[in-house]
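[step 3/7] fold_predict: job queued, chain A
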Amino acid sequence: MAKVFVSVKDIDFDKTKWIDARFSLQDAGEGQRKYEESHVTGAVYWNLDHDLSDMTKSQGRHPIPAKEALTELFRNSGLSLDDQLVVYDDGGSPFAARAWWLLQYAGFENSFIAHEGFGKIKETGVPVNGEKPQPLRTSVSPEWNEKIYAPRQFVEDTVAGETASILLDARSVERYRGETEPLDPIAGRIPGALNFDWERLKKEGVFNLDEVVKEQLRDVVNPAEEVTVYCGSGVTAAPLYAMLKHNGYESTRLYVGSYSDWISKDGVKVEKD
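[step 4/7] structure written:
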């Protein structure tokens, strides 16, 4: 079972590089303002729209940046592949998981998600300030792990029955069933997909690491099966991916384009209940 989430009390502050990924889908500037007010000392800030997505692309609502852009982000953040990295947000949010998945994709295997949000982290006595760090630029070369990335073609092949992967939709049951669609122009789901609402992963504002979530996940998909997770834009599917890995699902991919990318192609098929 892969270690994904780490409690602040178990982190060696002196040996850790921190990444602040706080964000709000309702207010895109909120995370930056919070960071400038106070953050873990030395933490760099990664913005969902500016750093963790390329909003100029058309592959869904939060497209994955080009590898060249991600490499620049890692280098400007002062990262090396063997660094111990901890990403945090406000707790129980998808943004640290999105950053963590990109780190995993790039080969930063010693990267983790802080189980607690920034408020709890601050309460534990971890040093915080409002100063923007100036990390030394590195020449790190990512080692891309394509086995955890699902491009659109892989999903098309999966729908056609040409892969062994199971599609798992992280959106609400209502959106999965096609009963409502507040964000995308076409309601429904990718054909053949199962459903596990990412909100079910949380308890009291943080991700629930108890056995109950493991059991609920196993009621939907077996850990021995290959799983490809998606959501609306690839953001809230990231914590579902993280929880699957945390609970022993070894063969798991993330369709970053997700449903918003799937329906962007004319004539594409969707399912509804």
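[step 5/7] annotate
The chain has two domains: 5-144, 147-262.
The CA atoms of residues 202 and 208 lie 5 Å apart.
exit 0
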